[in-house]
């Protein structure tokens, strides 16, 4: 039970820590919350669930009039703090988790340069004790890698949930937006020059993001074109760790990405689920040109004077090195991979059960 000294922001921090990945507590988190929420907004958000609930029910639980609650909820939706779904009969709202959710939405919702810079500074300070910790210490990885399609030989079995094109075709609502991770890095004068506009969102959240002006509605053809540009730029395909109805498909670099930085920055490879493939080198064909080493986003490939070598523990199975090799000296082989949860309910249940046990 909350103590009398707790203010609305402390209660909100505790509520956010009940999300599937949690929100590691500390002064860095509190600084973010005090920057993003007014005190009345924090008080209401502290009572909210992470699943959509009717506005009238949220108002009742918070002891507010429907008009008061609706005004606060709409303000928070505009700021990328809550998700809204409208139906002909009612509006539903849910609190966005810190990640994935609130962190990304700040860079989509904010257009002012100064505001983006401030957000970049706050979330950079929160990465190691917060965002990165949440991803790297999750008992079940929240995200997984899928291979570049042309890296896998036609003779090999590749399952539908391992194919980016198939995941895109599962959805009616598709949208493209700018990569939050690279935006944050650029605001801090860091990062790389990989394309920004290749972040993909799907389903009801894509509808919401388009409605808010944070993303552009896209056709399957436009999504596939963006996918090809991402592969050409040497980016890794990362999706939420489910077999059906993924919510996002990120195209990630090791310099900026909040998922891949669990490896490149925190040295914790278990924070992201590897693809069910492993790159293997044919030493007879390898000429040690270094193309594979240059394209690997997590430094899993090293080249000496004679041949390339792949670190099996680090290899994501993305296949970028295979597509970059000019001598066909690398191939993708099946390996034993972690099971993929069938859907989000199964993923969230797994995260919740194992967090409880821990």
Structure description:
With 358 residues, the chain is an alpha+beta fold. Among the domains are: 98-274, no CATH class; 277-336, Alpha-Beta Plaits, CATH 3.30.70. It is built from 15 helices and 13 strands. The protein has helices at residues 8-16, 27-36, 39-45, 55-62, 66-78, 98-109, 113-136, 164-169, 180-187, 203-212, 220-232, 261-264, 291-295, 320-324, 344-357; strands at 53-54, 82-86, 91-95, 143-146, 174-177, 199-202, 216-217, 236-240, 248-252, 277-281, 301-303, 308-310, 330-334. The strands form four sheets. The protein has a six-stranded antiparallel beta sheet with strand order 4-8-9-6-5-7. The protein has a three-stranded antiparallel beta sheet with strand order 1-3-2. Strands 10-13 form a two-stranded antiparallel ribbon. Helix 1 (8-16) packs parallel to helix 3 and helix 6 packs antiparallel against helix 7 (113-136). The two termini are 21 Å apart. 45% of the residues are buried. The mean pLDDT is 92.
